[in-house]
Amino acid sequence: MKPSKAVVLAFILLFLVSSCKKAEVPEEKVVKAGSAITFDYAAGFVNGTLFDTSIEEAAKKADIFDPNRVYQPENVVIGKDPLIPGLLEALMGMKEGEAKSARISPEKAYGLRIENATQVVSKSIFDEPDKLIVGGIIIINTPKGDRIPVFVKEINEENATIDKNHPLAGKTVQFAIIVRGIE
Fold it and tell me: What element of type H or E holds 162?
């Protein structure tokens, strides 16, 4: 008895299907602990005022352009490089090419504002008092030997007022982020 053409065709198809390797679908990259990522961002206040960005055109439009700055995507390793906690949370799980907006509370942004964190100090304690600028960051040594960054709030002939709060402490911030690459 001759096998029918349908049975032969069925065996041939079965053989072809069984001998084919399953097509490997590349695993989709997502931001996770240890990922090296590249991302662009725009950071502003809830009212829409931009205060920082990695995008030159956006900085120019917002009138915050600094000609001494290089505008380019940020490169960080998640869990290794410092990021504010709310931005880190927003980035986790994002995919390459994905864009997201994240509103970040003060606690997860630049911290709550601490009252009485300012201090008036004599300019004579600084190595280069004439290089102090309002809004600048300086590192001071505490009596315990710790080095902490503080912000210069005011300067007069004899004294400087320093603030241990970040200038954005107590503020809710809005981030727009785009993940450009994930390794």
Answer: strand 159-163
pLDDT tens, position by position, 96-134: 999 999 999 999 999 999 999 999 999 988 888 888 999
For residues 20-56, b (16+ Cβ closer than 10 Å) or e, as one string?
Answer: eeeeeeeeebebeeebebbbbbbbbeeeeebebbbbe
Question: Any idea which fold 36-112+168-182 has?
Answer: Chitinase A; domain 3 (3.10.50)
**Are 91 and 39 in contact, with CB atoms under 8 Å apart?**
yes
Q: Which CATH number fits domain 118-163: 2.60.40.1220, 1.10.1370.40, 1.20.1260.10, 2.40.10.330?
A: 2.40.10.330
Residue closest to 81 by CA, chosen among 118, 33, 116: 33
Residue type, 68: N
**According to CATH, where is 2.40.10.330 located in the chain?**
118-163
Give the 3-state secondary structure percentages of the chain, helix then strand then coil, rounded to 5: 20, 35, 45
DSSP conformation class of 30: B
**Chain-centroid distance, C-alpha 182:** 14
